[in-house]
Amino acid sequence: MTTAPGRHRITELPIGRRIAQLRARRGLTQQVFADRIGKSHSWVDKVERGIRSLDRISVVHTIAAVLGVTPEVILGPATSRPEPATNTTAATVEHLRAALARYDTPTPDRPSPSAADLRHHIQYAWTAYQHAHYPQLLRTLPDLLTHTRHTTTNNAPDAAHLQTRVYRLTAHLLTKLDEPHLAWLAADRAITTAAGHPRHIAAAAIALAQVLRALHRSTLATQAALTAVPLIDPATTDHPTSDDHALAGTLLIEAALAAATGNDPTTAHHYAHRAAQLAATRPGGNDATTTAGFGPTAVELARAHIATILGDPHQAITHHQYATASHGWRELPAEHRAAHLIDITRAYLDTGNPTAATHAIIAADQTAPAETRTRPTAHTIITTLLRAGPTPDLTRLATTIGLTPRP
Q1: Does the structure show a pLDDT above 60 at 407?
Q2: Which among 10, 94, 231, 338 has the fewest CB atoms less than 10 Å away?
Q3: Alpha-carbon span 260 to 245, nearest angstrom
Q4: Are 298 and 306 in contact (CB under 8 A)?
């Protein structure tokens, strides 16, 4: 099917124009559309003209529901056609490595974007991460790292915060791609650039704790998380915000996971319980760019992971089933849900149930394909399941990724 001259397929349009076309197709005026999504007419107009960024996952889902499409249609087609080639991923990781190693300054022939434009790009990058658009992020992050560093060099307002956010995002992505040493560099820089701002330090500490856990430095990971908690603990800080609850709760989850990795069940359960208390008392609201999806469901998923790590797969499955049946499950970012489904396959395998494990990995691929097709952890699990007895769906997924059954 060809596209008529002068017209573009909707997936090729900028996100604002894409929303405008989808709205027009449903016969909605900007005002009616604004009323249905709970926003002002001015907000809709600015989004459609590209003046305002669309950076909260909850808003993306609301818009998609009103327009009768999936969130992926709003954000673009990246998750439906991920780039599975390992060589491609390795090459783009090298571009990230090079960007982290550079210390050049901006030149007149290559000026950096304004701080306002950078904020706009960084918001989209975080939204892309939450939807597991990893190939897209790998292409985007090297330039974002360079531009935010140049912005800091130029002493632009809020430059340190922008750089902290990009370093954090880089650390999260590299941890997923099994590049923990490079991720450690990015996380450490996030901590350094966040110096002097308690909430930014706390958010950066989440990335650092995850990296240290990936490096099997469980004690250091626990310390990194717990050191940051007092900075934003709602029980000890003045005028705590909803995001303070989320930051503190996510840090406690990281401390619990690190303790479990260090085979300390008492400490793991203690901090998981504290996180659950914060989740139960957290006021409304969510900053999706810092602690996406923190709440009771996120705590249950963490408890499932803790149980798996500690060798109690039956308890892990109980937590998993309870969490995925809750209303909060669908509110979590696709990245979070798919990552959990990959984790829970281990519990099913440990109980001798490869069929349920296969269902989980297929569900992960349907939720966020790049989680299964890009992450080395998922490849290992798929290879294990192929040995246990491939199903047609699993074989198709393995073939797409480039994995083959081994005798």
Answers
A1: no
A2: 94
A3: 22
A4: no
